[in-house]
Amino acid sequence: AALNCITQAVCAQELPSGAQMTPAAEAQLRDVLKQALPAGLADKDVALHYQKLEEATFKLNDRNERERVLRDWYRAQPKNLAPRWNLGMLLIEKGSAAPEGFGIMEGIYQDTKEPIAAMRVRIKLAESYLEYGKYQNAQRMLSEAQVLIAEDMKRQRPPEGRYWPVRAQMEFAIAQARHFQYQGRYGEALKFSQQALAKGVELASSHDRYVSQWLANFSRSNHANAAVSHAMIQMQMGATSDAEESLRSALALFKSYGLTDQHLWHLYRTTADLYFIQGRFQDSLDTANKVKAMVVASGLKENTAQSLWTVNRVVRALAGLERWQDLVAQTDQLD
Q: Residue 309: helix, strand or coil by DSSP?
């Protein structure tokens, strides 16, 4: 019964569903993206203009528009760390532009002396190195970040000053869990994953009210996706019913944060994994194809990590269904 309850819980209509963005809401966000930078603004107001535009691209999950906005912002404010950082991370994710993205982030790593940014750039580089199979680089970044976090935890800060250090602690735990996951050390991965979820709860309940919606969006999305990663680790450990429960919790978290379907790729892919384990190959295929369409719609190309992770699920489900010709056609696309 426990294994079947996902059909009523995570996916009452066969597929799990996040909140849908209405056409009117999408049109409104597209209008925001047409706003030109007014002349004569003070530096602070230039940053606020671009933050508003970037927030619109985040809600739409439109990678191409986000790149355009971030490049414009970086040109307008070359000394502002925010557009430089966000552009670097986006380009790494885009695959084809990864060398430029790594160049930007490694430049920040060399330049940055500010304690929080120094911690976080190491964490973000560690995650990116893991995705590109550079495990020794990732380990070095995590070790350096751990030392900086330990030093920072000795500092006393009021509640309104704790958003960034707690966010860095959450991100470190997420990256460390992923590192152990890649090594097949699932017990240790689960321990760090639990720490990440606890930090995410602390952020949402106590600290993210002190920062802009633009910043809170990023940390909330990270927290919700960490809940999905937790389910993935549980599946790898064979704890399938625990994984179902975690996926349900993750879906509730996405909804509570107001994050729409466009942000649920990781949740849907992990649900496809769960269906596959349960022998529900058609459901697994349908879910993987849903994500595939969403990744394409976001503007990411076929050679990116997001695309490859998704196509791997499609290929595996086709093998489960013994649809060999379709499988060959799918793998030909990968070449």
A: helix
CA dihedral 56, 175, 276, 331 (to 10 degrees): 80
Among residues 188, 187, 145, which one has the least CA distance to residue 169?
A: 145
**Quick one: pLDDT at residue 71?**
96
Using an 8 Å Cβ cutoff, are 123 and 142 in contact?
Answer: yes
Closest to 10 measured CA to CA, from 318, 209, 287? 287
CA–CA separation, 248 and 104 (whole Å): 37
CA atoms within 13 A on the CB side of 317: 26
pLDDT at 14: 46
How far apart CA 168 and CA 206 sit, in angstroms, is: 15
Which tokens hold the place of 14?
């066969």
Whether this prediction's pTM lies above 0.70 is answered by: yes
166-189 residue pLDDT tens: 999 999 999 999 999 999 999 999
Would you put residue 300 in left (φ > 0), alpha (ψ -120 to 50) or beta?
Answer: beta
Quick one: tokens of 333?
Answer: 């696309």
Return d(Cα 62, Cα 74) in angstroms, integer: 18
pLDDT confidence bin for 260, thresholds 50/70/90:
confident
- Long-range contact pairs involving 273-280 (C-beta distance under 8 Å, separation at least 24): 273/232, 273/235, 273/313, 274/6, 274/231, 274/235, 274/240, 274/243, 274/244, 274/247, 275/317, 276/313, 276/316, 276/317, 276/320, 277/235, 277/240, 278/3, 278/6, 278/240, 279/320
Whole-Å CA distances, 9 to 136, 211, 234, 280: 40, 33, 18, 16
